[in-house]
Amino acid sequence: MVIGLDCAAPWLVLDRWLDELPAIRELTQRGVHGVLRSCDPPITVPAWSVMTSSRSPGSLGFYGFRNRKDRSYDRLSLADSRAVRLPRVWDLLSLRDRPVIVLGVPQTYPVSRVNGVMVSCFLTPDVETSDYTYPPELRDEIEALVGRYMIDVPDFRTDDKDRLLADLEEMTAKRFRLAEQLLETRPWDMFFMVEMGTDRIHHGFWRYFDRDHRLYEPDNPYEGAMLAYYRALDAKIASLLRHADDETAILVVSDHGVQRMDGGICVNEWLMREGYLVLKEQPSEPTRLSPEMIDWPRTTAWGEGGYYSRVFLNVEGREPEGLVPQADYERVRDELKQQLEALGDENGAPIGTVAHKPEDLYSEQRGIAPDLLVYFGDLAWRSVGGVGTGTIHVFENDTGPDDANHAPEGMYLLAAPGVSAGTGAERDIRDIAPTILELLDEPVPAEMEGRSLLS
Ligand SMILES: [Zn+2]
To answer: 146 lies in which domain range?
Structure first.
């Protein structure tokens, strides 16, 4: 029984709040637990697929939700389930006729055929019109049980915090209600669910909770909102655990952790200032950067927004109107890396930006990896892709208020027969799929990159 909590941080769940969360605490008293190091980048897509396939983003061939389809400037593809070409743990178990329940795991939309049931994830366009279940008729059963099912909360980057809280409560209640229904009515050797509410509440409420956040105000009305959500969640987990017996292995895992967000870096504004990026015309107001705005023959590099920045070089013979000669590629990339890493906050103070070269992160690179994966302030700052802000540092996010970014330290907790309790070593997110297979006495494919938590 795998309970995935998107964005749950070990320092909160397994430490600071542990005494407030009796179901989790009870599991820690009989299981091994610790830090689960996420992949690079530590982001929902690709992290859950890395966990469930035990393959790195380079092997999977996607480096975030949006990826370049080819070397053209304008073709992006969205990494939904169709981008995942390697088997995930439910695919392997289905082939072995082991019954599975898969509920809400990111990158399961569109749903695939499994030996059991699947309910898709936050990438589902619309529950009214999208086929979000396998088999299709499961949808009627869900709607009879909970009414309109909530895959995700709409618009989590909102100023309407009361609405967001109400939606989170409703979504999580419906998901766990459905989880219990499936556990009761379906055979299962593996149950794997992911709750997204933990991630959404971090992004929506971090400023009210974290005293070090720039926008924190003492005694604000939402100070306890995150903890209250987690306590309600813990009660739902307690109820779920009643469907497990003494022989059931329980895993509580997250895909990455969380940290406060200090602000945003307008990566393309910076690239323009340094002469790497040239536009045909200077926008007078904040504008989304689109390929037709760029003067390509004079452009060396451009970047994308998001929790981290994907920076691409415009290389001669590789991109349609490439400028950087192949022979200069490494020199230009090193110079860019060095300059990005030296970029400070709005006062010039160092923030600890790291610009990774993909070959340092991945032993193989399928698809099109960025030339640099840039973690501004080691992810304490997000990347803003828009131009026309007239400034490098911004404190209002371009996609709505968002107070938190991801941290590489996720969590694991394994309570299973024969596992002794205590704090365990830091483990890798790729270790989860081999653990599940070993617990079910199934062979672990040689291509898997992790090793079982039991070993
Ligand atoms: Zn996530």
So the answer is: 2-261+405-439
- For ligand 1, the distance from its centroid to the CA atom of residue 66, given in whole angstroms, is 15
- Cα 122 to ligand 1 centre (Å): 11
Number of H helices, E strands in the chain: 13, 21
CA 22 to ligand 1 centroid distance, Å: 24
Tell me the residue ranges of DSSP E strands in 364-434. 372-375, 381-384, 393-394, 404-407, 409-415, 422-423, 427-428
172 and 285 together in one domain: no
Q: What is the pLDDT of residue 396?
A: 77
Q: How far is the CA of 40 from the centre of ligand 1 (A)?
A: 12
pTM of the predicted structure, to 2 decimals: 0.96
Residues of the chain with pLDDT under 70: 397-398
In terms of domains, do 174 and 234 share one? yes
Cβ-based burial of 374 (10 A; exposed 0-12, middle 13-18, buried ≥19):
buried
Let me know whether 199 and 292 are in one domain: no
In the three-class reduction of DSSP (H, G, I as helix; E, B as strand; rest coil), residue 437 is classed as helix
pLDDT digits (tens, 9 = 90+) for 141-188: 999 999 999 999 988 888 899 999 999 999 999 999 999 999 999 999
**Cα(41) to centroid(ligand 1), Å:** 11
* Cα–ligand 1 centroid distance for 45 (angstroms): 7
**Spacing, Cα 363 to ligand 1 middle (Å):** 23
In whole angstroms, what is the distance from residue 163 CA to residue 154 CA? 10
Determine the distance separating the centroid of ligand 1 and the alpha carbon of 210, expressed in angstroms. 19
Q: What CATH number is attached to the domain comprising 49?
A: 3.40.720.10
Q: 7 alpha carbon to ligand 1 midpoint, in Å?
A: 5
Interval between CA 42 and ligand 1 midpoint (Å): 8
Q: What is the DSSP letter of 72?
A: S
CA 12 to chain centre: 18
Do 338 and 409 fall within a single domain?
A: no
85: left (phi over 0), alpha (psi -120 to 50) or beta: alpha
What pLDDT was estimated at residue 158?
87
* 3-state helix vs strand vs coil in the chain, percent to 5: 35, 20, 45
DSSP single-letter state for residue 15: I
Ligand 1 center from residue 128 Cα (angstroms): 24
